[in-house]
Amino acid sequence: MTAVPKPLKFLRPHYPDLTALYDKWPVGELQNALADVLSVLGMTYADNNKRDSLRYRLLAPSDEIGNWGHEYVRHLALEIGEEHNVRVEKEESFDELMGLALQIVPFFLKHNAEADAVDLLLELEAIEKLPPFVDKDTYARVCLYMVSCVNLLPPPDDMAFLRTAYEIYLSQGKLTQAMALAIRLDDHESMRAVFSATDDVLVHKQLAFILARQQIWLSLENEEVQECLSNSRLSEYFLFLAKELNIMDPKVPEDIYKSHLEHTRGGPDAGQVDSAKQNLASSFVNSFVNAGFGKDKLMIVDDEASSWVYKNKDAGMLSATAGIAQILLWNVEQGLQDLDKYMYSSEEYIKAGSLLGIGIVNASVHDESDPALALLSEYVENRSVPLRISAIIGLGLSYAGSQRQDVFNLLQPLIADTSFSMQIASLAALSLGLVFVGSCNADITEVILQTLMERDETQLSDKWGRFMSLGLGLLYMGKQDAADVIIETLKAIEHPIGRNTNVLVDICSYAGTGNVLKIQNLLHLCSERAESEPPKEGENASSQKTDDLYQGYAVLGLAIIAMGEDIGSEMVLRQFGHLMHYGEGSIRRAVPLAMGLISASNPQMKVFDTLSRYSHDSDLDVAVNAIFSMGLVGAGTNNARLAQLLRQLASYYSKEANSLFMVRIAQGLVHLGKGTMTLSPFHTERQILSSVSLAGMLAVLVSLIDASSFVLDTAHYLLYFLTPSIHPRFLITLDTDLKPIQVNVRVGQAVDTVGQAGKPKTITGWVTHSTPVLLGHGERAELEDDEYVALTSTLEGLVILKKNENKVEEE
After folding, report:
1. What global pTM score does this model have?
2. Which CATH fold topology does 511-529+549-720 show?
3. Distance of alpha carbon 40 from its chain centroid, rounded?
4. Name one GO cellular component term (predicted).
5. Cys-Cys crosslink for 512: which of 437, 491, 506, 564, Cβ 3.0 to 4.6 Å?
6. What is the pLDDT of residues 443-469, one digit of tens each?
7. DSSP annotation string for 270-298
8. In the chain, what are the domain boundaries?
C-alpha cells in the first residue's frame, strides 16, 4: 500500500458512503473521476464476489490505466477473469471486458509481466489477439512461456497456443523456431509458409535439416535444399563424426559381451546353450554396434562363403542378412551394392533378408530414384511368405512418414482381401500405419475397419492381429480428438480385438500430450480384474492372452501419453510400481516395457535399478521384457553401470536360451552405434516428438507384450522396426558450403529459463569441446564466442554457421 496516495488511505472507512454518493451525483466528468477513485479503493475493500474495482473501472473508461500502479492493474486482471467466467455461464456479452483486457495486455508486456498478459488472454479465450502487441523486445519471453505451457493445457487451448506462438515467431523473422512449432502443429501449409518467408537459400537448407530430422517429406523447388531435406548426406556426416572421435574400427560382439568378465557357473563347457540362437543374437549385436559405420568383421567380408550369414538357421538367416543393411544404415548406394549379391541367393530366407535390408538401408533417407519401391514392389505379390513379409516391412521402413500414395496402392489390396493370412494383412496394415503416421488417412482407416468387421473369429484371434490394430492407431498419432469417430465405430466389433484396437487408437492419438484425463482412464482400465474363467474346451490359453491385451496396451499408453513432460513422467513411474505389485499377467509384462519407453536413451539410475530388479522376476516373460528395457533405457549411451548389470545377467541366465538371447540384444542396444546414437523420440531440445520414431518403437513393444510368440520365436526380424527410431545424437557445425567446420562450443545440462528475469544462463556445468560433439540426454550446446552466428536457435544435429559480420573486435 506504500504507493497509494495518503488521502486515499483515509477514505477507506468512508467507502460505503462514497459508493452511495456516486449514484446521487449528476452524470459528467466529476462522476467519472469519482468512479476512478472508487475503483482503486475497491481493491482494498474487496468484498467477496462484488468486483467493485472492475465495476467502477468500466463506468469510468480511461486510457491511462497504468497510472494507479502495477498492483492495481493485476487486481483488475484478476477480476476480469472472474467476471468473464460468470458472464459465460449466464451467456451474456463480455465485449467491454475484452476492450479493457486489450488495454491491460500492452501494459503488462511493457513491464516484464509477459506471463500475466498471456494468462489474462487465456482466461478470456482470446489468445489469438496477442501477436499485434508483441514486439522484438518481448517476443522471446512471451513465446518461451507459451510453448512451455502447452503440455499443461487441455485441448483445444494447447493448439491455439502453438498456433499463436508460431505466428509471433514468423512475424519476428525467427524462422527456425517457427518451423519447430509448425512441425508440432503437423501442418504442411505452415511449414511451406516458413520457407516462403525468406529467400535466403542457407536458411532454407537449415530449415530442411530440421524437417529431415522429423522425417517429413515435402517437395521443394531448389535441388540443393531438397537434398538437405532428403537426408542423403547423413551417412557422410556421421562417418565424419566417427573419424573425429576415432571410433571407426569395427567391433565384434565379443568386445561388447566381455565374456571373460562373466562368472559362468559350472565347468568350462557349462555355458554352451543353443548355438543357433546365440549366433542369431550375435548377428543383432554386431549390426546394432556397427550401425551406420559401414564396416564390420562378421558380415561384410570379401570371401562371401565365410560370411556370418551362413552361421544362422532358417529365419535367423533373414535377420542376419538384414543386419548387413543396419551396418550400412543411411548409405543407400553402398547398401544396395552389398545386398545385391544376396538378392540372387538360392536360400529363400537370405533373399528375404536382403529385401528387408533394402527397406532398412533406405530408412530416414529418400532417394530421387526410389530404389526401395522399384525393388520391393514386385515381391509384394510373391507366393513365398518370407519374401512377401520382408517386402511389406521393407516398404514400411523405407517410406516411414512419407504418406506416399503409391505405397498405399501396393499394400491396400493385401488388407482388403480376406483370403490373405492375418500375418500378411496385419503387417501390411502396420507398414501403412508407419508410412501414413499421424495423417488420419480416411481410405486406410476404412479398409482396416472393414476387414476387422468382415474377418471371422479365428482370424481375428490370430496373434498377428495386434499389428492390424496398431496400424490403425498409428494413423491417428498425436491427433487427439480426431480419432473419436473411429473409437465409436470400434465399439461395434464384438470380438476382443475391438476393445484392444480401441485402446491402441486412443493412446496413439494422445501421444506425448500429457493429458491427465486420459491417464486416469487408462489407470481405471488397468484396475479392472479379468473374470478368471478356466479356458473352455477347445480354447487354448493363448486366445485368453488376447482378451486381456488391452490392459497391456493401457500400461504402454501411460508411458506414451506422459512422456511429453517431466512431472507426468515422474508420477507415472510411481504408478508403475503399484501396477507391478497388484496387476495381472499382461499388465506385469507391459510395465517394464513402458518404463523403457518413457526413458528411452536416458539411463536414469532409479529406472534401470528398478528394471534390474524386475529382470530376476520369477515370471520369465516379465524378466525378458525388463532385460530388453534395460537395453532401451541405455540405448546408444555406452552406460558402464548398465553394461555391468547386463554382464551379470548374462552369467545368471547362462543356461536359459531365451533370456540370454534378450540379454545380448540389450547389450547390443546399449552400445548402439558404438555409443553415438539415440532412440529417444524427442529432439530439438526435447520439444518435438517424432511420430515416426515413436511408431517404430511401438511396433517392437507391442510384439514384446507377448515376446515368446514373436521375437523369441521366429519373428525376431520385428526388432528392425527400431530402425526408423535410430538417430545420431551429434552436433556437427557446417560452413556455408555444408562442409563440416570445427568451432568451440560449450556443452552442459540445459536449464529451464521460463519466466526468469534478465538474461539467465541457459546451461550449467558446461565443458568446452570443439565440434563435432555428442549430446547426451538433457544437454544443450551454445557457441563459445561470437565469431560465427548459427542459423538455428537450438544447436543440435546439423547446424549451419555464418561468419558474424558485426563481430566486436577485442582490443
Report:
1. 0.92
2. Leucine-rich Repeat Variant (1.25.10)
3. 49
4. ascospore-type prospore nucleus
5. 564
6. 999 999 999 999 888 999 899 999 999
7. TT---HHHHHHHHHHHHHHHTTTTS--SS
8. 6-229, 511-529+549-720, 730-803
